[in-house]
Design the sequence.
């Protein structure tokens, strides 16, 4: 008889033990994170699979129910819209099978991300400065200056320390050959780190026995590292600087994360009404008077930041804040205008940025991308529209994405018309056969589902990457849409601590393979303009 899971009065019948992983099949043509093509667990996954088999289906299902109850009680939820148009909250879906990244693979990922974020930061500074990469025609002028996220108000501005993207979250995928590739860059207001921390806490409480055979790198240092990076970029150096988290408000879908990070960093969570600018200096209103603010971690979009510079109807912004930023009296993370670096058309040129600014070869490859603003590339892409993925260049969260291989004839025709109407608004990419990972099915068995990975980094005096990140999983069979707003879930991501001599040997092999929270619904009544803006502003990538 299988031993009961700690804290549960359930035991699993012997016949159900092998059924957890016994019927698991790796889809042909895809790389699986934990199993080889011959159904054998990979070396780093053997103990995990054995532990899951010992737990059995009944225990896994009971743990799932306990997880949902705990997440609902803690407010770890997100809003989804049903087919009838009604919004409702649901617990953030955490799959109970973690994703494991061996130490040597993580070393490659971490090095590649540091390289990429440094190049993106240099690019942003160049775009709003001397524009040398544009003058040398490495990146097209009109592509950047015509980008909706380009902010002319930032031309000639140099933020404290020259750091534009203090927070970054790049989306990575492993293709069918097992190589890591960058799918997207997120350097505006990347979201999801709170789920990384909450997922790890939930896993250690729900299934501590899964960790028994592994030395897993911690992720809970992120709030401290973020606060440290904000202090390092603040005009007033040292621990005396005052840091705040700026949220659009409780109607925003990521408000849980805003409040969570402020609490974890031990700083104030503020809204626009708490801030005021006087004589090009930003202050926070307190019961004892005005307190000067030195660094702001903002979680709302550029358009809403300052009604004197951007949207004049913004109820969420602070008048005069842009002047304070120009004066260098306050650091804003991320800086206004960083979105020019995660535009999906600009993404195509990141490898060239790395070569130009760092004089290095990229460690992480891009997905092959076609700029449809180019007539020749447009013609080739439309000829293969059934085989490609089309993305709008300035959207996030999976909005507007067209996946050719799974589209109907009507959807193909509609996408063709949309593309021809405004080709510059679109890119096309080769389909990446995302790797799969074992995921708990409704009956408690393990089934393969497609995953990606969003690691998070902070940039102060140096780039620091948190070991792990948010593994997003497509919960529908065959789907490659991992966004939570589109029905996706998440996994706890384990980066293993290296054994002596492990990294150097494996890094050579990997490099050779690499081509160069949501608050409860606010009811059905009419929303105010401010609540609508809170919902729209700062949803994050």
Sequence:
């Amino acid at each position: 008889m299988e031993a009961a899971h700690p804290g549960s009065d359930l035991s699993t019948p012997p016949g159900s033990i092998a059924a957890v992983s016994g019927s698991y099949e790796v889809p042909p043509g895809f790389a699986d994170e934990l199993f080889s093509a011959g159904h054998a667990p990979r070396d780093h996954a053997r103990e995990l699979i054995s532990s899951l088999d010992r737990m059995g289906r009944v225990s896994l299902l009971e743990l799932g129910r306990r997880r949902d109850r705990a997440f609902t009680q803690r407010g770890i939820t997100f809003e989804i819209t049903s087919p009838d148009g009604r919004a409702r909250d649901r617990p953030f879906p955490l799959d109970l099978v973690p994703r494991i990244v061996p130490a040597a693979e993580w070393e490659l990922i971490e090095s590649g991300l540091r390289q990429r974020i440094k190049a993106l930061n240099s690019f942003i500074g160049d775009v709003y400065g001397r524009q040398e990469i544009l003058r040398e025609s490495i990146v097209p002028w009109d592509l950047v200056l015509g980008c909706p996220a380009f902010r002319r108000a930032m031309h000639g501005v140099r933020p404290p320390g020259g750091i534009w993207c203090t927070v970054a979250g790049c989306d990575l995928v492993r293709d069918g050959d097992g190589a890591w590739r960058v799918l997207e860059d997120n350097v505006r207001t990347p979201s999801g780190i709170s789920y990384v921390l909450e997922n790890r806490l939930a896993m250690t409480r729900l299934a501590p026995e899964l960790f028994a055979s592994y030395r897993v790198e911690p992720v809970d240092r992120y709030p401290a590292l973020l606060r440290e990076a904000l202090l390092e970029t603040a005009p007033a150096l040292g621990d005396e600087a005052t840091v705040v988290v700026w949220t659009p408000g409780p109607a925003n879908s990521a408000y849980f994360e805003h409040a969570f990070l402020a609490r974890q960093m031990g700083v104030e969570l503020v809204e626009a009404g708490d801030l005021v600018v006087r004589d090009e200096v930003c202050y926070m209103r307190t019961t004892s008077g005005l307190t000067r603010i030195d660094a702001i971690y903002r979680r709302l979009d550029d358009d809403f930041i300052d009604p004197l510079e951007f949207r004049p109807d913004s109820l969420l912004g602070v008048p005069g804040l842009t002047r304070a930023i120009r004066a260098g009296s306050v650091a804003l993370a991320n800086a206004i205008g960083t979105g020019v670096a995660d535009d999906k058309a600009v993404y195509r040129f990141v490898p060239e940025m790395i070569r130009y600014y760092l004089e290095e070869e990229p460690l992480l490859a891009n997905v092959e991308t076609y700029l449809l603003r180019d007539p020749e590339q447009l013609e080739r892409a439309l000829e293969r529209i059934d085989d490609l993925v089309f993305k709008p260049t300035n959207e996030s969260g999976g909005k507007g994405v067209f996946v050719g291989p799974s589209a109907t004839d009507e959807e193909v025709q509609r996408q063709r018309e949309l593309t021809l109407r405004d080709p510059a608004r679109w890119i096309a990419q080769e389909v990446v056969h995302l790797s799969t990972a074992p995921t708990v099915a409704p009956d408690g068995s393990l089934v393969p589902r497609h995953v990606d990975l969003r690691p998070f980094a902070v940039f102060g005096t140096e780039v620091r990457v948190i070991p792990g990140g948010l593994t997003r999983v497509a919960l529908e069979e065959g789907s490659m849409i991992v966004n939570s707003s589109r029905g996706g879930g998440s996994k706890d991501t384990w980066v293993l601590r290296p054994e002596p001599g492990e990294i150097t040997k494996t890094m050579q092999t990997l490099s050779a393979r690499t081509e160069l929270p949501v608050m409860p619904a606010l009811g059905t009544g009419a929303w105010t303009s401010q609540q609508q803006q809170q919902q729209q502003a700062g949803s994050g990538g």
